[in-house]
Amino acid sequence: MMFDLPDSKTLYDALVARDASYEGRAYVGVTSTGIFCRLTCPARKPRFENCRFFQTPGACIEAGFRACKRCKPLAAAAQDDPVVQRLLAVLEERPAYRWREGDISAMGFDPSTVRRSFRRHFGMTFLEMARQRRLRDGFTTLKAGEPVIAAQIDAGFESPSAFRAAFARLTGLAPGSFCQDALLLADWIDTPLGPMIAVSCPHRLHLLEFADRKALPREMKRLAASQPGGIGFGRPAPTDQIAEELHAYFAGTSGQFDTPLALHGTPFQRAVWEVLRDIPAGETRSYSQIAADLGRPSATRAVARANGANQLALVVPCHRVLGADGSLTGYGGGLWRKQRLIEIEATLARAKGTAA
After folding, report:
1. Which of 111, 199, 292, 351 is most buried by its number of CB atoms within 10 A?
2. What is the pLDDT of residue 123?
3. CA–CA separation, 253 vs 256, rounded Å?
């Protein structure tokens, strides 16, 4: 059963106190180590600014954190399921192995049963968990300046071509396409709703998307082609700024985004995005309302297309646009995220009203 997480300060106090009442309901990812733990973990407590809190182990893994070997959060989350326990053990023994459904069957387990069990406990399948772990290791190696072959080995891929293909499916670009002297630099930002990829130059944020958005590879290719130096790995000042603002947003302390933006679009698209940025957190609009605000009441479909072309998630809040009947309609990051973002902003708006 899911429940709404309290604010980060409350969860940090629970972490320091090793409060067992949060057992199985909240987890902490430590950005300085890349490890996630149960709140009752006996390890030395991290600094508050290095903590990110999540509802499930799956969300921690999607955000790029590895399970702690002391408190074993994965094992604790599925302690009553021997099938899951067994598969977690073999994954720990062979983290770089490319697991397939045939391997699951060979161990005497039904793949469909395993899929359901892992989704119930972690929000992802066993194969997805293994793949996330391997690709994240490869991304981290490349970011550290190591050659592609080292990243391929760290990610557990037997052939360079297979690693390049998997990495390209994630980012839209082959690992060797990232340039050391590029003006645009890409980095990961961990959030409670999954990892995001940010691309910035020294002065502006050019892209911010959830890593699993289907349009991300296409957007990355287009952005790389627009710059003579392509894209590299790194974290310029705008990425640092948006990471801090996202942390405050998800912590429920601020809905304000002041990071300078580079809006890549037609004049009409940019006009739509500016209207979106004027929608206060906690409020929503319909496509027809936005068209009317632009003085083009018949352009509802064009507004919807411009909304879908936005590549700066959250800071250009296309999630605040609903159907005429109030339905969630489409959202590139997934309707479950759209619903959660609207809930977060409703809480922000209530807190702001109370403070006023």
Report:
1. 199
2. 67
3. 9
Domains and CATH numbers, the chain: 1-75 (3.40.10.10), 78-170 (1.10.10.60), 267-355 (1.10.10.10)
Highest mean pLDDT among 8-17, 22-31, 163-172, 247-256 belongs to 8-17
Summarised one tens digit per residue, pLDDT across range 161-173 is: 777 777 777 677 7
Name the percent of the chain in helix, strand, coil, to the closest 5: 50, 10, 40
* Residue 297 three-state SS: coil
Q: What is the pLDDT of residues 108-130, one digit of tens each?
A: 989 898 888 887 777 678 888 78
Write out pLDDT tens, residues 63-100.
768 888 889 888 766 666 788 878 888 887 887 677 88
Contacts of 150 (CB under 8 A, 6+ apart): 141
| Alpha-carbon gap, residue 149 to 161, rounded angstroms | 11
Of 41, 51, 71, 318, the active-site residue reads 318
Contacts of 165 (CB under 8 A, 6+ apart): none
Enumerate the H helices of the chain as residue ranges: 8-17, 57-62, 73-77, 82-93, 101-106, 111-122, 126-143, 148-154, 160-171, 216-225, 237-250, 267-277, 287-293, 300-308, 335-355
- CA 347, CA 130: separation in Å to the nearest integer? 35
What are 208's strand-pairing partners? 198, 312
In this structure, the dihedral spanned by the alpha carbons of residues 73, 75, 81 and 87, taken in order and rounded to 10 degrees, is 120
Separation of alpha carbons 351 and 356, rounded Å = 9
Q: Is 37 a catalytic residue?
A: yes
3-state secondary structure of 160: helix
Q: How far apart are CA 159 and CA 153, in angstroms?
A: 9
From the candidates 37, 51, 60, 68, which is the catalytic residue? 37
Residue with tokens 């990610």: 155
Cβ count within 10 A of residue 166: 19
As given in the structure block, the two tokens for residue 75 are 């094992």
Contact 247, 192 (CB under 8 A): no
